[in-house]
Amino acid sequence: MFENLPAKVKIVEVGPRDGLQNEAQQVATADKVALIKAMADAGLANIEVTSFVSPKWIPQLADASEVARCLSELKLDSVKTSCLVPNLKGYERFKESKIDELALFMSATESHSKKNINKSIDEAISALKEVSVVAKADGYRIRCYLSVVFECPYEGKVPSKQVLQVTEKLVTIGVDEVSLGDTIGAATPVDVYKMVNDISKYVDKDRLALHFHDTRGTALANVIAGLSAGVTIFDASLGGLGGCPYAPGAAGNVATEDLVYMLKGMGIETGVDLEKLVDAGALAQKLLDKQLPSKYLRAALATREKAAGKQESCV
Ligand code: HMG
Ligand code: MG
Questions:
Q1: What is the structure's pLDDT at 311?
Q2: Would you say the CB of residue 90 lies under 6 angstroms from ligand 1?
Q3: Which of 56, 208, 211, 270 is deepest in the core (most CB within 10 A)?
Q4: What is the pTM assigned to this prediction?
């Protein structure tokens, strides 16, 4: 099982988008930018920084253009920034933003599609095709999330045939990379292994990403299944922040700290400095004024506190 592991993987940090879109409180633009800077300092090289969706639907990210403007002033040269784009209007905002890459998104079920973007699957494909045509002409590479590929909060288990049909359409409209979303965190490792093998008939494994929410505690096990099946791109969220506001009960993504710790222990390179990542996680907890779900973050901060306490008692 562990014979063919990759030497390195790409982590796409989605905390500033997937995480903050789901927070009840509004985070100030300057704080979002500081958090993204801390992520970059930790070595995260691919960061989804915001979303050009309707501010009426996701008010938490209404400051997307302002976040992008501040980031372009910061010139984070080591980072490829990306953002969500749902339609041509979002694409216009993206193009003005100087963000490096765009990510489309849609769902594998009609019910989640309606709730999330107010469109049927066919309508969603048409809207994404309009964007992909101009984005390709402008020279962009296109990532697309496919949500609820294992289980849908409205329709239950999703037949893999349905997922394959939508994936085929995404490839037809020119999507270069597909990120398979376990939006409500219901998959278990064998589901993941089988799904990757089925989907790889349409999308090469090096153009497949996995996006695990950790609602039921299976996200890291699912990463192992994805690695074994040959996937080398994983989405993760600092501290385990996140969720989809239109998927009730969905917890955050696999925590970046937990993922980096596990991969490091397995000898797989991520380019991320764990100590600096913990600094970023601590900043996120401070800004949001709450403890985040990442287990590694909790353990590392407890160790730091203990070390600081020992030092104090020696003085
Ligand atoms: P709609 O209301 O059906 O759209 O929303 P519309 O085209 O009829 O437009 C309505 C109004 O929105 C108009 O303004 C438009 O101009 C405006 P008005 O005339 O009423 O003043 N509008 C926009 N404004 C700014 N930027 C835009 C934009 N588009 C329209 N891009 C729409 C359709 C798709 C816009 C809406 O449903 C939407 O924004 N949905 C986004 C929902 C969302 O962001 N969900 C979370 C992200 S997906 C996710 O988390 C899953 C993922 O993590 C993977 C996984 O976990 O599975 C990616
Ligand atoms: Mg998500």
A1: 62
A2: yes
A3: 211
A4: 0.97
Indicate which atom in ligand 1 lies nearest the CA of residue 213: 56
Q: How many structural domains comprise the chain?
A: 1
Q: Spell out the residues 6+ positions from residue 56 whose beta carbon is closer than 8 angstroms to its own.
A: none
Please name the helix (run of DSSP H) or strand (run of DSSP E) that holds residue 176, with its range, or none: none
Beta carbons within 10 angstroms of residue 32's beta carbon: 24
Range of the domain at 189: 10-313
Token pair listed for 48: 């989804």
DSSP string, 68-130: HHHHHHHT-TT-EEEEE--SHHHHHHHHHHT-SEEEEEEESSHHHHHHHHS--HHHHHHHHHH
**Which CATH number fits the domain that encloses residue 186?**
3.20.20.70
Among 51, 54, 178, name the best residue to mutate to test ligand 1's pocket (greatest count of ligand atoms within 8 A of Cβ). 54
Q: How far apart are the first and last CA of the chain?
A: 50
Beta strand 177-182 with 208-212 is: parallel
Is there a domain that residue 3 lies in? no
Tokens of 34: 């500081």
- What digits encode the pLDDT tens for the residues 170-217? 999 999 999 999 999 999 999 999 999 999 989 999 999 999 999 999
Nearest listed ligand to the Cα of residue 180 = 1
List of the chain residues with pLDDT < 50: none
